[in-house]
Amino acid sequence: MRDAVSRFVRDGDTVVLEGFTHLIPFAAGQEIIRQRRRDLALVRLTPDLLMDQMVAAGTARKLVFGWLGNPGVGSLHAVRRAVERGYPGPLEIEEYSHFGLLCRYKAAASGLPFFPLRGYRGTDLPRVNPHLKQVTCPFTGETLDAVSALHPDVAIVNAQRADAHGNTQIWGLVGAQREAAFAARRVIVVVEEVVPEDVVRADPNRTQIPSVVVDAVVEEPWSAHPSFVQGYYDRDNAAYLAWDRITRDPAELERYLDEWVHGLPDRTAYLARLGEATRDRLRPGPRLAGPVDYGDYR
Amino acid sequence: MRDAVSRFVRDGDTVVLEGFTHLIPFAAGQEIIRQRRRDLALVRLTPDLLMDQMVAAGTARKLVFGWLGNPGVGSLHAVRRAVERGYPGPLEIEEYSHFGLLCRYKAAASGLPFFPLRGYRGTDLPRVNPHLKQVTCPFTGETLDAVSALHPDVAIVNAQRADAHGNTQIWGLVGAQREAAFAARRVIVVVEEVVPEDVVRADPNRTQIPSVVVDAVVEEPWSAHPSFVQGYYDRDNAAYLAWDRITRDPAELERYLDEWVHGLPDRTAYLARLGEATRDRLRPGPRLAGPVDYGDYR
Amino acid sequence: MTGGPGAPTRAEIMVFAASREVRDGDCVFVGVGLPNLAVQLALRLHAPRCHLIYESGVFGARPVRLPISIGDPCLVSGAAQVLPMAETFLYFLQGGRTDLGFLGAAQIDRYGNLNTTVVGRGYDHPKVRLPGAGGAPDIALNARRTVVIARQDRRKFVERLDFRTTVGWAEGGTSREAMGAPGGGPTRVITDLGVYGFDAETREMTLASVHPGATLEQVREATGWDLKVSSSLGATEAPDQAMLRLLREELDPDRIYLKG
Amino acid sequence: MTGGPGAPTRAEIMVFAASREVRDGDCVFVGVGLPNLAVQLALRLHAPRCHLIYESGVFGARPVRLPISIGDPCLVSGAAQVLPMAETFLYFLQGGRTDLGFLGAAQIDRYGNLNTTVVGRGYDHPKVRLPGAGGAPDIALNARRTVVIARQDRRKFVERLDFRTTVGWAEGGTSREAMGAPGGGPTRVITDLGVYGFDAETREMTLASVHPGATLEQVREATGWDLKVSSSLGATEAPDQAMLRLLREELDPDRIYLKG
Hints:
heterotetramer, A: nine-stranded mixed sheet, C: ten-stranded mixed sheet, 8 helices
């Protein structure tokens, strides 16, 4: 992880960290904090705790998002302090609906300069965001909304597994990972397990991201904690609730970053600190998908 | 099948029959022939043998397509006779690239009146097709190609399996089935197997088409023969080669339709005529995807 | 039915009223929290064949526990389909396959337009920075019917929004149609005090019923404009004991959403 | 090397020449037939890390038999990824991830524009109705390099196409760029007589080499315009015995594609 972040994430980059509630790249985000990257434009449909940490740690110049909150709990206090009071520094924001931001990824992944949608008419959003315009249908004459393409410098996505080349498989919520990866110039994939190529190739319909767009594969179990990985672990709700308390006080948030990020060398140390009992509590029972037959065609 | 076609396919309808080389709805198409539907606008990326049969049988007023051929073999002689010589009757055509026609499905499925792409500039295709125009990007000012939305009356798609509600799973080539189904007003799904709901729900990422867009589920094993179904049977190349010979002579083609379509009451009779030996020859050996764990979250 | 230890709370009345908006067979875009409880209740009562869609990408969810977010893993295990998020919006919502969507709001005006972006007039330096749009603008624009669920007070039911995040009936009358909005617009607002419809011509929010235990005076007090009241104003139907038992003992036993 | 029982046929020389166009690491949009053989050969020789993409939706195919169509099930079993067809075009091709595409043609002009639609000038009443566009226009427009493989004669190498299905260098010079075509345009034409490049300025097709056994005169005879010939015209490199063995015994043992 250290090498991947060090090689592929640069100061000033536009960095997409995707995963909709599922597979949030916490380990990668914390490594970016640890390496003290600066002036990043951070992009994510739902900023969540991860962006609260990255903003509080001073990595971000700008936040591009769709919905800003601690899901099921409340506010992101560090982001709010930055937006409402410029504390500890100014933070530029650029906001969309989820669908609008998704369409920006989709346009970029598809080599299109814009994507048409029905999403913004009658709202104040285009007033505060120059990436929202309108386009006229050449067949019906109808006016549609349109967003511009977003080409991030880096996309970081988590997944259950990949082979060493980067052919990456996800089940459960696949979010916007594929679009983000195809939209980006550089891609880091962080997985629970690196598996032999044969495991991936036994089920090619499961592959979300092909090797050819992937620059680095990092194997780091539990790297999405405190979010969840379908079939591997559940969301750690206690951590989401605790975050609300921790972040109400900037000093306590500082202490959290010192203890859990700067004070630890890597994710292995994080897991040791988290403890086996917490991990045991979060492991679900098994619920297996049945196998399907692709057939051996010779 | 008889009921589904009788209820949902009407004279004059625009009917999409999808499945790219894989899962071609032969049984459904032959039932449409048997019920002597007329004046259909038939839509398919790659017309293939199926459309040759349907055109020869007089079901079609119009053919909408991307690539017209007997894949790996040669021409579709019945379609060529209709286009080149108006035999046995006139046939209107409307043609696209594969990508262009796909984008028409995608626009309709997405509730958009058009879809932007880079595909036609510099060619003669827009000269002969009014559904190909251009659109200007509101951000860059660049001119892009655009196709209009295509909303078929009916989409017929084959799949490996579905539950009784119509939640439909496909592995291997998924083609344009999902887009076609969401674009259509009525949807018939034809499957190798109807399975219990639990089988589908054990692996929701495999579901291509949700029950809510499906009007009829027909269980009909081998209904894609002579095309193939991944994991179930191989393409019957002998039949594709034979078709080239049969269709060179309109009289022989008539005999084929009499013997294999009109002369048979249903697919069961077709399979009996096809014979067990042919089916044995086409069955692949097993090549199983490994199971994945979704987790039991309580 | 009001009063006594078994009496329904206002949150329970809200959830029950919301559940009545779900019709059998509906495709429902579900938000987390009260809407989720409402749909679960509808599934058990009068709409066993409604389909739960979550913008996270899930169709036909069958959660065996109460989901804590719209992306809870319990929504995936046992679902009928999981789609990429983009296709959920493109095909289910924009493609016109969604019958009903539930929305929340920090501010709402008389035409059902919503603000979930900022409190205070300066967008760049807001008094309170709210979560923003999420899925709401697209749901409001594309679903056949939308229902807003919100606790009611004067700071929330405002004469003028500080920011319009999500369009309802726009400026009323035919203004929503005129902008070419494909969906059907807001049909109901459900608060902890009452249930509202919208006038078929002016599209102005109109009080349809007051909850048991609340008064018309309280409702007016909690509304920042001169509220229209239906000529056939009645009392909101309250859930019976069997429904309450379902809500309290099966659907939200830990009182996560039914605190209030 | 020419003459004798082991001498390469013209089809084999074509396949070998085409295989040399594949660079290691390339993402190649593969058509069926000769291009597929060419890529299989490249994989075994100098480009072991090239990626096979089929418009049917397959990335990283590893077929264990010779595929009979671009959707053969042997392309799926053991592949790295299967995508919906739309995404294959959107992300791999239009998204700029394709290095090389192979095309065929019924007619080609001096600027590498192609016709696969009709023979005869009347579109509505063609003399011969050809298959049409398929994936070609989009591959030609979006891939970084395209290579055309076609048997050559005067009816195919024409002064003027009956229909332009697929754009090459348009009217030559900067006309392709001027229309805003994102891909790199045709770089090679490989026939059963020779190999062609395109002039860097005029973009006119230029004979680069003649196959062993063919003559410049034969080539001119089979071309419907006054053909430009490279000043450094040479003989096409022919496959050696090991390569021929690979082609004949492993890749196409039944001579399905190597008939000619």
